[in-house]
Amino acid sequence: MRVLEILPLIHGILYVSLQSALLTGLFLERRRETGGLGKAGNPSGTSSGALPRVSVVVPVHNEESRLPALLEDLAAQDYDGLEIVLVDDRSSDGTAGLLSGFAGGRDNVRVVCLKENPGPNHKQYALERGLAVAAGDLLLFTDADCRIGPAWAGAMAARMGDPRVGATIGPVFKSWPGGQDRLSFGSAVLPPEKAGGFLYSYQCYDHVVRFVYLAGAVGLGAAGGGFGNNLILRRAALEAAGGYAAVPPSPTEDAALISLIRSSTDYRIRAVYGARTHVYTKPETSWKALINQTLRWNNGGLFSPEIVTRINYTILMLTITVCTLALFLMPLYPKLWPMPLAQFIVMLENTLGAVCIARGGRWKGRGTETRSSLPPLFWLRELLVMPFYMTLMTVLGFLGVKTTWKETTMGPRA
User: Fold this and answer.
1) What is the mean pLDDT of residues 170-189?
2) What backbone phi and psi angles, to 5 degrees, belong to 66?
3) In this predicted model, what pLDDT tens digit does every residue of 323-382 receive, in sequence order?
4) Residue 198: which pLDDT band, with cuts at 50, 70 and 90?
5) What DSSP state is assigned to residue 274?
6) How far apart are CA 256 and CA 250, in angstroms?
7) What b-and-e string marks burial along 185-214, b requiring 16 or more CB atoms within 10 Å of the CB?
């Protein structure tokens, strides 16, 4: 009986210790990033002219309302020799016309038009077709609903100066919609009356905390995920892993790709968060849409085709779930108190990491300025809600609840 009484304390200590190790990995990655860059933001000992050719690959599907903003940002990139590969995945709106108009008169733009897409992950198939025509030694990815600064391509390429690095993960933030800092995402942006509400603020917090986990795991040598809308690969690393066709079908193809490179090659995975590497994405406009997105991401980890990623992510989610449920059981079993306390300490650590990542992320372009996702506030409300939200996602995932992406229904494992 005595053993059962001290189990919650042991559990809490282990949970906080693991989170502290993850935070250590996060700061190790920051040191590696700053140590590997020269004063000009290029890899030590190189110049911008020595950097290899970069191909940006962007799959799009019915993105007429959001695509113009990204195309403007791509046109403004200051990286010499940048190739832009745009994959039109069976769009039925005005996307094809936008892509055609953008490509006209630009020798560095290639448009791939798909009339059929067998799936099972349609985005994964579209990316494979785009990569087949890309000529760059470095392959850079983003999405149609994102905004990027003019130095983005060069900044991400600079992080690939070490030939041992096969992939680099960059941060993705929700753009903060305050005054002059608001970015336009076309008609898809949140209406002003909702932009400052909890739906939006929670997404901001959630997105940065996710990068805390991603970058921390990378720092500890256990990379198992990444943001596919801010990711750069070395072509040689992709080929060493068997090519993009070797990536197993997954609801989160970006995480599956990172896991494949880590587990099947000798190349290293890095994570960076210098201000010029930031990507900004639009918020979801309803809780239903946010839950669908989060559940799809969560399922990608819980049912990852790569066993190490699946085990690590499942342990993390079950730990969060157990600590959250212990809070409800405390009136009956008061000695469970170390578990909810550990959860709170862990979320404080996550918030510290999130603020360190997001602060200082500011860039200007074409009269528009944006700042990092987190305002200079301590977000106690979001910190307290996140464990309950992720517990719900874990329960729904194990119950087999399906998600949708671009009008496609996806089960937990595909």
Assistant:
1) 55
2) -110, -20
3) 999 999 999 999 999 999 999 999 999 988 888 777 644 444 444 444 444 554 557 888
4) confident
5) -
6) 7
7) bbebbbeeeebeeebbbbbbbbbbbbbbbb
Least confident range of 107-111, 182-186, 207-211: 182-186
Helix (H, G, I), strand (E, B) or coil at 105: coil
Mean pLDDT of the region 254-267: 90
Residue 246, token pair as written in the block: 């070797």
Rounded-to-integer distance, Cα 308 and Cα 316, Å: 12
Structural domain count of the chain: 1
* Burial (CB count within 10 angstroms: exposed 0-12, middle 13-18, buried 19+), residue 307: exposed
111 DSSP assignment: E
Neighbour-count burial for 327-346, b at 16+ CB within 10 Å, e otherwise: beeeeeeeebebbbbbbeeb
Token pair belonging to 154: 């060069």
CATH number at 120 reads 3.90.550.10
Q: State the DSSP H helix or E strand holding residue 375, giving kind and residue range, or none if neither.
A: none
Residue with tokens 């993009």: 244
Domain limits at 322? 2-410
pTM of whole model > 0.70? yes
State which amino acid sits at residue 261: I
Q: How far apart are alpha carbons 396 and 59 in whole angstroms? A: 29
